[in-house]
Amino acid sequence: MMRSIYSYLILTLAILFTSFNVAFSQEAVDSLAVQQGKEIFKTNCVSCHSIGKNALIGPGLEGVANKRKKEWLKKWINSSSDFIASGDPDAIAIYEEWNKVAMTSFYFEDEDFEALYAYLKNPPIQEDIVSADLTLAEDQGVRTSTKLMFIALFLLMLVYLLTSLKNKLKESLGQETETIPDTLLSQFNLFVSENRNVVFASFACLIVVLKFSFDTMIGVGVYSQYQPEQPIAFSHKVHAGENGVDCNYCHSSARKSKHSGIPSANVCMNCHTYINEGKITGTTEIAKIYDAVGFDPNTRSYIEGYEQKPIKWVRIHNLPDLSYFNHSQHVVAGKIECQTCHGPIEEMDVVYQHAELTMGWCVDCHRTTEVAMEGNEYYTELHDQLKEKYKGEKITVDKIGGIECAKCHY
Amino acid sequence: MHKESEIRDPLILGNKTYHDITRDIARPVEGKANKYWWILFGLSLVLFLWGIGCIAYTIGTGIGVWGLNKTVNWAWDITNFVWWIGIGHAGTLISAVLLLFRQKWRMGINRSAEAMTIFGVVQAGLFPLIHMGRPWLAYWVFPIPNAFGSLWQNFNSPLLWDVFAISTYLTVSTVFWYIGLIPDFAMIRDRMSKTISPMKKKLYTLLAFGWSGRAKHWQRFEEVSLVLAGLATPLVFSVHSIVSMDFATSVIPGWHTTIFPPYFVLGALFSGFAMVETLLIIMRKVVNMEAYITIKHIEYMNIIILFTGSMVGTAYITELFMAWYSGVEFEQYAFLNRATGPYWWAYVSMMSCNVIIPQLYWFKKIRTSFIATFILSIFVNIGMWFERFVIIVTSLHRDFLPSAWTMFSPTFVDIGIFLGTIGFFFVLFLLYSRTFPVVAQAELKTILKSSGSEYKTRNHE
Amino acid sequence: MNKKILYAIFDDEEILLESVKELRSKEIEIQEVYSPFPIHGLDHALGFKETRMAITAFIYGCLGLTFGGLLLYYIMISGIGKSWPMNIGGKPNFTFYQNIPSFVPILFECTVLFAGHLMSLTYLFRNKLYPGASTKSPDPRTTDDKFLMELVVQGSDLEVKQLLKSTGASEINEKEIEDE
Amino acid sequence: MKTTKKYWKGLAQLNNEPIVDTLGQNEFIEELPVDKFLGDQENLSVTNSSRRDFLKFLGFTTAAATLAACETPVVKSIPYLVKPDEIIPGVANYYASTIYDGRDYASVLVKTREGRPIKIENNGTYSNSRVQASVLSLYDSARLKSPLKDNKEIDWKTVDSEIKEKLSLIKDGKIVLLTSTILSPSTNEIINEFSAQYSNVEHIMIDSTPYDGILDANMDSFGVRLAPSYSFDKANVIVSFGADFLANWMANDYATDYVNGRNPKSGKMSKHYQLETNMSLTGANADKRIQIKPSEQGYLISSLLDAVNGKSYDKRLSNIVKSLEANPSKSIIVSNSNDKNVQLLVNAINHKLGNYNNTISIIRPSNLKQGNTEKLDNLINNMQEGNIEALITYNVNPSYSLSRAKEFNTALKNVNLKVSTSLYNDETACLMDYVCPDHHNLESWGDANPKYGIYSLMQPTISPLFNTRQFQDSLLSWIGKSDYHAYLKNYWSRKGIDWNQSLHDGYFSLDEKLIKVKRFIDQSVLVKNQKSDALELEIYETVALGDGSQSNNPWLQELPDPITRACWDNYLTISASTAKELGLSNWTVSNGALNGSIVDVTAGNKVVKNVPVMITPGQAHSTVGMAVGYGRTRAGKAGNNVGFNAYPFLDAKKVVITKVDGEYEFASIQLHHTMMGRDIVKETSLTDYIKDPSSGNHRETYATYKGKLPSDQVSLYEEHDLSTGHFWNLSIDLTSCIGCGECVISCQAENNIPVVGKQEVRKSRDMHWMRIDRYFSSDMTKELSKEEKKSAIDMYSEMEVPSENPEVVFQPVMCMHCNHAPCETVCPVAATTHSNEGLNQMTYNRCIGTRYCANNCPYKVRRFNWFQYSENEKFDFHMNDDLGKMVLNPDVVVRSRGVIEKCSMCIQKIQELKLNAKKSGKPIKDVDAQTACASSCSTNALVFGDSNNKDSEVWRLRNDERAYDLLDHLNVKPSVFYQTKIRNKS
Questions:
Q1: What topology is assigned to D683-983 in CATH?
Q2: Which residues of C touch B165 (CB under 8 A)?
Q3: Would you say D822 and D973 are in contact if contact means Cβ atoms under 8 Å apart?
Q4: Is the residue at C84 inside a domain?
Q5: In a domain, C131, yes or no
Q6: Helix (H) or strand (E) run with residue D384 in it
Q7: What global pTM score does this model have?
Q8: Residue of A nearest to B151 (CA)
Q9: Touching check for B151 and chain A: CB below 8 Å?
Q10: B398 to chain D nearest CA, in Å?
Q11: Which residue does chain D place closest to A398, by CA atoms?
């Protein structure tokens, strides 16, 4: 209750002193309620509503809290269909407006609703997103190759210049000139004739070969930047980035399981039952989902007895079988952002492998990342002991055995 | 000019001049091989190929094709490994230790002994590789920076010590050998006529590194040989000590024994010299080196064998005593089991071949007979193989918990691989005897005047 | 003014040695001596300095020892950077000295490895010996049974030749080299 | 997440479009198991990826096609189209259910991953190795894949119509339902309805090993044909005449009670006498074991009755009588005799001793054995006379398991309608007209009433793998009904049971009115001593295979027998002395493998040829034993032609054996039977223990400057810190361990341990991570040899020979997780290292396979992958079978060729445990910490936990006086430790 009063206060104040508006709402954003609300919104609403103006399946909810009364919202959310039945004009209006589809029901407990409401009242100023500099990574690939090309070109030109110069001189001396191949050949013979040269040349080659093989050995199993074609041109940029759908909405098992889980088609259908036109690709790509599950967009219904076709997504992050990785461990227990390993997913139209996914990469992170012990009862006793043991040092994952073999290999 | 008392028997027979030596040593390289050579070569080649087949089969199918089991995880593989390493010891010892002790008789045999060392170690090196479950990952035993974050080796492991010891030993003794070879290659190079065999000429020119025998070079040459000898000597001892630690540092009764390092080193010399004899007695016939590898050399070696043999015997007795004296029932049973358990026959053959038979060398007649020596040396080789077998298998097959006790018997693959390495060894050695100066002629020439029979008689008058 | 190179060939190392001493006593400078095998006392006779091969070996040895030490410390003990000390069989790998018993073998091997190889390389390097180098010996027989003394004489070489003959040179060849 | 928040499944749901519901509710949708597997080739090619993450197979199939050695393999991932709510890929679900195959009963928890059962956990009660292994039988590709008619595939519709028609046509002839003992009340009701529908239906129950003796005796004594329930925990004295109640006799829950009744800490430990012929598991655990010939049993029992009645008796019984008198109405007398008169004597004794309603209860009977051999015999006779029109079999395999199988098979020809509901096209089914294959337990609905008042429910944990239908549904459809699930549901709701709750728990209890029994009437007739010198036979069931219904289960086939330690075989057990007289012997060949003589066994007109002879200490003189359950001919590739069929000899008493030439090759994993006077299993007697709890737990001490110290306090090392965080320890109580081998199977299931087959086992290359060592006592001891001034050589050679009637000890041995591990220090590449939680970690993918660690392991618990055991037709067991592979645990890698493996202390379970704790932000509860072996142990002999947690059970045990380290003088500081064995003898 306190919270709601608080938010009411803000409202009135906001109306009275617009000049302070920003400052206060800012403060509100920081308030716990709003944070909770945000969570609830993410997990329940984002799939149909944006917090901004743009309409998805349902209307954009900007300023809805000011437009509608709180009780009204509560009724609507708890069971819109009943509410409509009760004959509330606004409700019916919306029902009509949104092609006779009532909103699905959510039975929130009071405090949750309060939180949600608080959030709706104080929409975020802008979503800040983690972004990693991937252009750099790409550049390197380019740079090295171009470098080599330039060098090669330069050398060729040099050869050409020298030979032509030589020919000029020879002409002036009245000797017969020689073509570039001749020169190269003669030079080569000259070079080979001297044993010493051969020896050193072979040494040089040896070193090059060794270096190369060493690099390849290091590089085995490193597939970063791997960016395969997907059967459906699904854009994370559109979904996660622009529409701000929470990763956890589709990859729900990431918080429960070792697998982040490729969302099953019915998850797609949650929204795409009604959205059948995409920003970039129009209807073509979304049609593929319908094709898979057997959904008729015109009648908006599943086709009875349809022989469903599985969607064969191409797996991008392939960790070798011999190592055990658990998403929930990192996301829930470790409180790691998805982007830490997967890079700026919300900026990718086509997803590529951001990290190396080598053991070195894992271990380095474990050596530097601090364990999220605060407020986790499991750690309380251990934490004290460790504080004893490593006085003052920050307790990284490796200090609780995070780089031991059998933590991942069994 | 260093003179030598005439009581000492000559080490170079017949009336040889420097040129004769040159000619004799170069002959095998220049001339055609005689039929003995071809027979032996063909034989060993067959064995070699058979061995390769068995190895391929093992790597293709799995170590399961050997006779090993959950209790006896090492048997013939490591037995052969230690056996070959042991053989690989005499060479360096002869060239290094005897050099330090200024033993002239080494001149005649050191080249071949060293060759044997290197070829022996090559065979030995095979086994740690192929006995692995996943030999294609063998490079993991070297500290190479890697993408595993990065993951290194365990330097507490005797096996890793082996890796370092053996690779060092192999390379250093090869270098030692080659340094000595350079002048002799030069000799052959200079005898080769461009017209007759240009390829050969080119080859030996490469091998000779452009040696020209300048005074300063000879001065450095002698110092380097001396220092290398100084390095090689402790190396020899270290290598087999470390090999012995594979067992000595473990907990298995019959392995966990502090006497192992000296005992293994002596055993190695013992078997090494035996193998040198086996080889030289064949070689002096095959490439007619009778004048340079004399019965005197053989006798000297026999004396060493007699000595080391007795030492090894002492070690066996000591082990038994310690087992009894320790009062540890596991130790006691381990040794009781060796002598009276299911593998008693291995123990008996070890004892008789290594301890009793060499005692025959107390008789000069046997000591100075090529035939007897040849036969006895074979016996010693067999005996030493059994020693390793006894140590490895009989210790493993009954250790702490009787519930895990079992036994081992080899499959045809085990045997095939062993024979294969013998074949490989002889292939290498025979090729060597046809292409390399088998006697260090440069060094030999230095003792011609002091130990050549003709000169000795002349000095006598 | 013209220079000559004399190649005096001897059949026996002892005679050569005598003749070297003789010539040196007459302050005739000997360019080089080629022999099929090392001759004792020749280096003194020619007044060579002691070679420093042994010293290099020692230095390389120390190098090897330190390398081994650092390697082991880095991998088994330090935990610096990418090194990864683990609990292996409860062995006390907290400090170097606690773990040293199991390091001794490898330390030793490293020492020998470095000393042996680097010295040999130095030896080859100093002697300019490398695969494919061509011989500098003026007479191929010097690797067989002939001993060759190389001298440079200015002007008349008669007495030198006399001397060589008298000290037992079996044959003497000469080569003109004109210089400007 | 608040429970009130529900995920939202599309607007369609709101408009209640049926399809969504069907999609949503459909528990086991298309993607689940084999439709994919057997369905399309593409997935078959997939299954060679090494870590069998189920996702990769099924709901989330991956097709890996490696383009080039160093190229990224393109991996296709197929998510569920419609993901069932309760299945979260990568998270295990547990369902409470029941296992009952007509022989073994257990209430269990089934662990499933992505809708695929992978492990059986016992539901807070007991189970045994066969129950543990039944999950593999589910994925047996030898199972019938559709109904058969005359061994040709056919669809259910026609089967039903034809059968129905034929049944309805039957007028006067009999219809017989031949089933195993039925525990399910609902099934009984269905059968009743069935009998009501059709004319003169008879329902005959049989047990593979008949228990008519007991049942009939109780009929006479109490007027009810029921088996009593025994409370071995309440008894102070247990006298068993050949009853192997710890393994196979009657119900299999006695082990738990037995061990509860033998707790030395409380000082209350039952005294257990075993008078038997074969060395049984029970005999091996007895405090006093007396060898008798089968023919003596009756006499001895009547003599005991005499004794109880104060008459004179056989002196062999004197101790027994004393302790019986000392413990009035606190004893149990049991006998394995199938002779009614003998059982009447037993009843008389128990009644005289006042055991009824104290330790034995007839008013709360056990329902596990209700077979009736008399009816069976009648049936066969009737069949011969052609009075039987229709025969429907369920859960039985009479053509194989009857002593009169031959007659049965011939008589079968006279039956017009023959229907089998077997899972396999087995010996019986192949003779039937119709086979209507039943579901496997794990695919079925059901209920069971194993014991008075106790009920448990069975629910499917996977959609049927094949086109099968469970027996009950078949019966229903033949009486024109359907849907057993619904039937069952309302059967119980009618009885007022909260269906969902009890389904969730898996069991519930009803208090019904007690069984009415007559007052006890003693009808016992004393039996004379018919002891003969002839060679007598006693048939037994092995601990591994039981009655052989699961003999196509490679896990069970490779589970070594606790006593003989041999697997993949049955054989003639015989005592050393008898063997000597008959010129028979066992010997080891050059690679240590065991060989034995071969004999022909003849009893009356029955003969088995070429039976191998296994010399077994403890076998009574001039007797032999044979195990049933082997010699199957139509079981499947693993079970066919393993051993010989001993069922024909079920009621043979005397046999004649004649030696034949040749030798037989056994696969025995323990070739050496005695402890050689070593202090491996530390043992003491109850009386000594009560005097001094640490008795028998003597520790080597070493002289140091601090005085004499035990090894673990003498160390040159500065210790690594194990006190922070967890320190996982496992305690093994040798007093509670009865050696049943359940943990071995549990471990095998949990850790994807391969089956290697007879030839490899014979080469001592068994792969089990844990083994249960069995040691016999020997007549020769160190003390004795001192007295007799024997030489060490003689002493040891005599020690190798077990006594004629030895004392037996069992010792489970797995990786000891030494904190000063010899194996770790010798690995060149640090593939095995130590964790800060006291675990010895084996990193398969780092291993290069030098096997040095295995050599240097004093316990010899490390196992090497000599070959590629998966995906290799040379090892054609479940790992080379697309269906069989579904049992693999996705959290554990399948090891490749050339690496060492060993017990990991179920690291995957530990990690999961910690992770869940971290995620929920709660400290770990001691009870949750479990390894596969510990959780499966029915006698709670293995206790796992965190020793740094001062209020954990394992910490208490660590500090118990009985705790000791195996081979403590080596000072390897194991994390696994033992509790001394205590026998109740003075």
A1: Alpha-Beta Plaits (3.30.70)
A2: 105, 109
A3: no
A4: yes
A5: no
A6: helix D373-385
A7: 0.86
A8: A360
A9: yes
A10: 10
A11: D836
Helices D792-799 & B329-340 angle (0-180, nearest 10): 90
Write out the residue limits of the CATH 2.40.40.20 domain(s) in chain D: 536-668
**How far out from the chain centre does Cα A194 lie?**
59
Chain C nearest CA to A358, separation (Å): 14
Within a domain: residue C139? no
Query: For the segment D24-77, what is each residue's pLDDT rounded down to a tens digit?
Result: 333 333 333 333 333 333 333 333 333 333 333 333 333 322 222 333 345 556
Per residue in D733-779, pLDDT (tens digit) is 999 999 999 999 999 999 999 999 999 999 999 999 999 999 999 99
Q: Which of B151, B205, B206, B209 to mutate to test the interface with A (most CBs of A within 10 A)?
A: B151
Q: Which of A213-217, A376-380, D243-247, D666-670 has the weakest average pLDDT?
A: A213-217
Beta bridge partners of D269: D262
Tokens describing residue D456: 């448990």
Task: Look at A403 and C84 and tell me if their CB atoms are within 8 Å.
Answer: yes
CB–CB contact B147 A219 (8 Å): yes
Find residues 707-736 of chain D whose CB sits inside 8 Å of chain B.
none
| pLDDT given at position B61 | 92
CB spacing of D830 vs B152 below 8 angstroms: yes
B150: chain A residues, CB-CB within 8 Å = 360
Beta strand extents in A113-213 (DSSP E only): none
C35 contacts B213? CB cut-off 8 A: yes
**What residues of chain C lie within 8 A of the CB of B224, using their CB?**
53, 119-120, 123
Q: Is A373 on the interface with D (CB under 8 A)?
A: no
Domains in chain A, please, with CATH? 2-121 (1.10.760.10), 134-219 (no CATH)
CATH 3.40.50.740 segments of chain D: 148-209+371-497
Task: Kindly report, as residue ranges, where domains of CATH 3.40.228.10 are found in chain D.
Answer: 228-361
CATH number assigned to the domain comprising residue C159: 3.30.70.260
Report CB contact under 8 Å: B157, D852: yes
Q: For chain B, what is the largest distance between any 2 Cα atoms, rounded to a whole number of angstroms?
A: 77
For residue C41, the chain B residue with the least C-alpha distance is B1
The verdict on a CB contact (< 8 Å) between A301 and D12 is: yes
D434-435 vs D148-149, strand pairing mode: antiparallel
State which amino acid sits at residue D250: M
How many helices and strands (H and E) does chain B possess?
Answer: 18, 0
In this complex, the residue of D828, D862, D972 whose CB is nearest that of residue B153 is D828
Q: What is the ipTM of this complex?
A: 0.84
Looking only at Cα atoms, what is the longest distance across chain A?
A: 111
Provide the CATH topology of domain D228-361: Dimethylsulfoxide Reductase; domain 2 (3.40.228)
Residue of D720, C83, D786, D917 lying closest to A378 (CA atoms): D917
User: What CATH number should be reported for the domain whose range is D536-668?
Assistant: 2.40.40.20
Q: Which residues of B touch D863 (CB under 8 A)?
A: 70
Subunits in contact with chain B (3 or more CB pairs closer than 8 Å): A, C, D
Mutation target for B interface from D564, D852, D899: give the one with most B CBs within 10 A: D852
Q: Domain D148-209+371-497: which CATH class?
A: alpha beta
Judge whether C165 lies within some domain. yes
H or E stretch covering A302:
strand A301-302
What is the distance in angstroms between the Cα of A39 and the nearest Cα belonging to chain D? 10
Query: Residue B251: which of D678, D679, D857, D815 has the closest Cα?
Result: D857
Cross-chain Cβ contact B149/A363 below 8 Å = yes
Mean pLDDT by 10 residues, chain B (461 residues): 65 79 84 84 95 94 93 94 90 82 81 90 93 92 82 91 93 92 89 77 87 89 91 91 93 92 91 89 82 86 92 93 90 93 94 92 90 92 94 93 94 95 93 88 81 70 58
Q: Judge if C110 and C80 occupy the same domain.
A: yes
Domain that holds residue C16: 3-36+145-177
How many domains does the structure of chain C reveal? 2
Of the candidates A252, B255, C127, A379, the one whose C-alpha atom is nearest the C-alpha of residue D87 is A252
Give the model's pLDDT for residue B249: 92
- Claim to verify: residue C64 and residue C16 sit in the same structural domain: no
Closest CA to C129 of B93, D956, B211: B211
